[in-house]
Amino acid sequence: MGDSIVDIEDLEVLAEHLFDEVDDPTLIAHWPLDEVQGVIAYDDANTYGGILIGGPVWQPDSDIVAGSLQLDGIDDYVETDPVLNPAEGVFSVVAWIQGGAPGQVVLSQANGANWLILDADGKLTTELHGSGRNAGGPLLSEADIADGNCHRIGFVWDGSYRHLHVDGIEVAADVEPLTTLEGSYGDLYFGAGSDLAPGTFFSGLIDDVRIYNRAVSP
User: Which DSSP state fits 217?
Assistant: First the structure.
């Protein structure tokens, strides 16, 4: 109430707005993946609705984040219109997952890079790399996300450094700055590699995918 004292009146005001949606203008795409039927994954923040391909199954009773999408690891994925070009500025991507196996991809860009991928040991990696001489190569972490547990994973490009997050903890970051990321403006794939190659299709649950045009803290 502006009097620097937390009392019952403050709590009453808080309760009135506890479940209000927060309008974040930096959230440029958000797929809750909470549908119960149909072949469209709707974007709550913009117009980048995704098409379900291969027959992913909605899991409305999943307890990850109020429902999720089950992919079979064979030919299931979601394709959306292009959202951003990684070379054009700061951005972050966050998603919830459960499952997956080594070599499988959570998020990628057609004709571009695998943004969030499980490496040969099931550890979170990004293949988004810099351009020119200082390309940087893949950014590897030691975080095992193929252990069957639910994980909130994220990639952040702050304009100089790449960061990987798992469950609110930074698990990898560049030591040397990059000039920029390699550019691409293809469609986005949830649950498949950028070339749709066998072995890259994700087997498990994906939920609540978000993209921001800012650097998000873990």
Answer: P
Nearest to 99 by CA among 121, 73, 78, 119: 73
Q: What is the pLDDT of residues 186-198, one digit of tens each?
A: 999 999 999 999 9
Helix (H, G, I), strand (E, B) or coil at 66: coil
Question: How is domain 32-212 classified at the CATH fold level?
Answer: Jelly Rolls (2.60.120)
How far apart are the C-alpha atoms of 22 and 25, rounded to whole Å?
9
Question: Checking DSSP bridges between strand 203-212 and strand 68-72, what pairing results, if any?
Answer: antiparallel
The tens digit of pLDDT for each residue in 28-50 reads: 999 999 999 999 999 999 999 99
Tell me the C-alpha distance between 195 and 81, whole Å.
Answer: 16
Q: What are the sequence ranges of the domains in the chain?
A: 32-212
Could you tell me where the DSSP H helices lie in 145-207?
Answer: none
- Predicted pLDDT of residue 122: 97
User: Which tokens sit at 217?
Assistant: 């803290």
